């Protein structure tokens, strides 16, 4: 349903993505791994349109999204959980959710359902974004993306900077979303979390994909670990 | 968490006035209010009301400017020109239609529409280009508007008659005061109330605030932030035009009113903090009163006094009374 072919992207003059090709199929959870600076976040930003590709194409559900503005891409059914969470600090938890709410083609997420699934957010609905803990912010970012009722979720390092217990909770949420059949493109440094959830994965290095396979095949390949993941 | 000794060291290295920055905003408001009460008690209630009428005009101007700054990171030096256009349009409309109330409706709409068109045609091109380009472009626009106004309406001082319903004075118990200026104060409060409601209680208000926080993220959630920005820009210009209309009958219309007003509203925006409506409201009252009392008590230094207010605020709270420090 999402297909990137030979995507090249730049930050100013520096060439960051050097021909990225990857796909996410219906109902599939796909991982995007690699060291810092490999181009994972830039790939996400290219998909959502923050950094439009200079070459190559991005097709989603048969629609060519290359060069479209971010709001159109998001309206096409892509939900974004960005790196650093992107929670609006001067909005309450409730407002963070309602401002994003949209009846998309997704799974019928409403404010009530979000509060049911994330009771902590319900308790804190009147608190402002900058009064939340890191874990709460991450839940809010996930819930906010779900409120747009997306048909594909992009998640950029949801476990970054969180305590191990909170990471486990985020992992449980991801597993649950996968159960519901929401396709997922997950960027993650936390290898264990990622391998637990994804069906397939790509490893990136220097702006291009260097490995494609299943978690099992990655685990079997020790050189790959050492060279591109640093474990 | 910092240890007590680290905090002590920090305090030792900072100049003494940094301690003032830790005084809560509420305390600042109380100090301001106290100053007003003292001044009023000193036997000059009329000047307090004059100051408040001016404050409300400043608020109407700064409200638009601060949101445009905060949300679009856009330096608009043509904001005073929208104010001037509103005033002069109202002058002509009142002459033609004989109705102040109709003018009060039409002139801001016309100014808002013009601003929307300007934004779509030229201003949007410099949104991403940094402040210098924005300043140059909008300053140029302001000069063009100033010349156009002089060309169409001439260089002499004009006045808009006070509408019949608001002629005369009203007794307030402790003093009598011109009805029209009370109307200006009331309009400021009403518009302030409406804006406050819109910003804090509606979805579009939440989107605007989110835009001040992180515009890209708003777009990433499927909201056309460019369109929202254009509407906010037009709305801010319409408010400035509205301020121009209601200023007509109590200040005079003359060349130069655009830049005078621009400077005052920039000071209000800076004192209140970029992007905050509350800040603009409090700062407008502070600056309006300081300016009015400055002119009465020490006429030679009146302009200096508001700059002193600004300097004091910036020294103690560099991002304004209600502004948030930028990360």
Structure explained in plain terms:
The complex is a heterodimer of chains A (231) and B (327). Chain A is 36% helix and 26% strand. Chain A is α/β, with parallel strands linked by helices and 231 residues long. In chain A, the strands form two sheets. Chain A has a six-stranded mixed sheet, sandwiched between helices. Chain A has a four-stranded antiparallel sheet with strand order 2-1-4-5, with helices on one face. The longest helix of chain A has 16 residues, at 164-179. The radius of gyration of chain A is 17 Å and the shape is globular. Chain B has a single domain (25-36, 44-316), classed as ABC transporter involved in vitamin B12 uptake, BtuC. Chain B has 14 helices and two strands. Chain B starts with a helix and ends in an 11-residue tail after the last helix. In chain B, 44% of the residues are buried. Classes of the chains: A alpha/beta (231), B mainly alpha (327). At the A-B interface, helix 2 and helix 3 of A face helix 9 and helix 10 of B.
Q: What are the main properties of this structure?
A:
heterodimer; A: about 230 residues; alpha/beta; Rossmann fold; 6-stranded mixed sheet; 4-stranded antiparallel sheet; 10 helices; about 35% helix; globular; B: about 325 residues; mainly alpha; ABC transporter involved in vitamin B12 uptake, BtuC; two-stranded antiparallel ribbon; 14 helices; disordered N terminus
Write the layout of secondary structure elements.
The complex is a heterodimer of chains A (231) and B (327).
Chain A lengths: L1 E10 L2 E11 L4 E5 L6 H9 L6 E6 L2 E2 L5 H6 L2 E4 L11 H6 L12 H7 L1 H5 L10 H14 L4 E5 L7 H16 L4 E4 L3 H7 L2 E6 L2 E6 L1 H6 L1 H8 L2
Parallel strand pairs in A: 3-8, 3-9, 6-7, 7-8
Antiparallel strand pairs in A: 1-2, 1-4, 4-5, 9-10
Chain B lengths: L3 H10 L4 H4 L3 H17 L3 H28 L6 H19 L2 H22 L9 H23 L15 E3 L4 E3 H23 L1 H11 L1 H6 L4 H23 L9 H16 L4 H21 L4 H15 L11
Antiparallel strand pairs in B: 1-2
Helix pairs in contact in B: 3-4, 4-8, 4-9, 4-11, 4-12, 4-13, 5-6, 5-7, 5-11, 5-12, 6-11, 8-9, 12-13, 12-14, 13-14
């Amino acid at each position: 349903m999402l297909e990137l072919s030979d995507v090249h992207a730049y930050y100013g003059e520096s060439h960051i993505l050097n021909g990225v090709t990857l796909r996410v199929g219906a109902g599939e959870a796909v991982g995007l791994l690699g060291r810092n600076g490999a181009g994972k976040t830039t790939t996400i930003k290219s998909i959502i349109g923050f950094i439009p590709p200079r070459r190559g194409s991005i097709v989603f559900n048969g629609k060519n999204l290359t060069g479209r503005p971010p709001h159109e891409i998001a309206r096409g059914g892509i939900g974004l959980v960005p790196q650093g969470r992107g929670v609006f600090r001067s909005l309450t938890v409730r407002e963070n959710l309602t401002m994003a709410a949209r009846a998309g083609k997704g799974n019928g997420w409403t404010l009530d359902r979000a509060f049911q699934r994330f009771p902590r957010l319900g308790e804190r609905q009147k608190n402002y974004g900058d009064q939340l803990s890191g874990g709460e912010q991450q839940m809010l970012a996930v819930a906010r993306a779900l409120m747009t009722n997306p048909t594909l979720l992009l998640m950029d390092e949801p476990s970054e900077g969180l305590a191990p217990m909170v990471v486990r909770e985020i992992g449980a949420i991801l597993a649950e979303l996968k159960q519901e059949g929401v396709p997922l493109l997950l960027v993650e440094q936390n290898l264990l979390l990622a391998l637990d959830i994804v069906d397939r994965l790509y490893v990136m290095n220097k702006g291009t994909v260097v490995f494609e396979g299943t978690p099992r095949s990655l685990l079997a390949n020790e050189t790959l670990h050492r060279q591109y993941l640093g474990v | 968490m910092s240890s007590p000794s680290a905090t002590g060291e920090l305090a030792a290295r900072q100049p003494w006035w940094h301690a003032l920055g830790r005084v809560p905003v509420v305390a600042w408001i109380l100090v301001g209010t106290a100053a007003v009460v003292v001044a009023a008690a000193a036997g000059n209630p009329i000047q307090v009301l004059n100051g408040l009428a001016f404050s409300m005009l400043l608020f109407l101007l700064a409200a638009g400017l601060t949101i445009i700054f905060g949300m679009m990171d856009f330096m608009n030096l043509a904001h005073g020109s929208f104010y001037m256009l509103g005033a002069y349009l109202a002058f002509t409309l009142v002459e033609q239609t004989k109705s102040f109330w109709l003018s009060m409706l039409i002139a801001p709409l016309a100014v808002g529409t013009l601003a929307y068109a300007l934004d779509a045609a030229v201003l949007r091109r410099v949104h991403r280009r940094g402040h210098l380009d924005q300043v140059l472009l909008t300053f140029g626009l302001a000069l063009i508007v100033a010349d156009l106004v002089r060309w169409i309406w001439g260089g002499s001082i004009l006045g808009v008659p006070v509408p019949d319903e608001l002629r005369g004075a009203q007794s307030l118990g402790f003093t009598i005061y011109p009805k029209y200026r009370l109307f200006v104060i009331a309009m400021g409060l009403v518009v302030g109330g409406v804006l406050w409601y819109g910003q804090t209680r509606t979805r579009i208000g939440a989107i605007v605030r989110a835009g001040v926080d992180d515009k890209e993220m708003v777009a990433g959630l499927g909201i056309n932030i460019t369109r929202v920005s254009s509407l906010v820009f037009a709305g801010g210009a319409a408010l400035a035009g509205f301020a121009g209309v209601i200023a007509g009958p109590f200040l005079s219309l003359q060349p130069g009113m655009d830049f005078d007003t621009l400077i005052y509203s920039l000071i209000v925006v800076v004192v209140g903090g970029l992007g905050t409506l509350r800040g603009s409201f409090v700062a407008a009252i502070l600056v309006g009163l300081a300016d009015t009392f400055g002119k009465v008590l020490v006429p030679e230094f009146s302009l200096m006094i508001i700059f002193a207010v600004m300097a004091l605020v910036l020294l103690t709270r560099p991002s304004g009374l209600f502004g948030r420090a930028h990360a």
